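# step 3/5: fold
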Amino acid sequence: MQFKGKNQKLQFQMGSWWVDRMLGWLENNNEGPFFIWGHYFHVHFLAEKELLFSGELDKDDHYHYAYYDAKIKYMDEKLFQPLIKLLKDLDIWEDTTIIITSDHGETLGTDDPTWKTYFFDYPQHKTMYDDDLKIPLIIKNKNLDKQEIDHTVRAIDIVPTLLDILDIPCRLDCDGISLTPLLEGGKLPELTAYAEELFEKRGAGSLQAIRTSRYKLIRNITKNKKKFYDLKNDPDEMKNLIETSYPSLKEIINEFEDVMNEMYESYRAQKSETEKQEKNLIQDVVNNFDF
């Protein structure tokens, strides 16, 4: 992102420069095992600015929700399909494991705003509601049957799952667990998902949430406010039950808050040790990698 001058237009460049370089690298480095991590920005809010400016999007086509559908179509046609074609041309498509996910969701809302009103009506990843927290998770592997799984899983489960699928020993203590039992048609116990947005200037304050498939507790530390939702009967999170008079529900709320406190303190305690392990692991990889 560059500012050329006080009265000149903002020039915004997405992190697209690496895509062609990645494809080129893959063409020359596919004989043995490889790992590629790519962070595409093209569906993110405000990416439409660059895509419109460069002519990649038609200003009159699918312009609602900040060109959300148009950006997904662009991602598929211009970015995913070339990668898939290359993998097939190299005859490694079947043997390549692919995971598609996101770092946050998208608040589309119940109305149908134009691009001009969308920015103000639906601020992105600034809440602990499911619209912001739920993300796609698509796993493609030749040993997995095609299926849809209805089970609460978490971003921290992705790494141990990938390592398990590929039969790679994990050298770090992961916060998450492998989801392979679910992928193989089995079962897992209820998982508790923790989320936070502690940069209070971003939105409504310093936020935390804890969620199961049935209930969710949201806590605003800055404003000392709480919200509790029964997701089974209120999936849109419209009815705050925090002031409930039902003793059994009050007990559940207290249990959720205790678990939230435990998870928060546990993550804080692990952070420095995890960062140390990651630094040592990266250095070990660098020292032993044949550049």
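# step 4/5: annotate
The CA atoms of residues 61 and 279 lie 46 Å apart.
# step 5/5: archive (pending)
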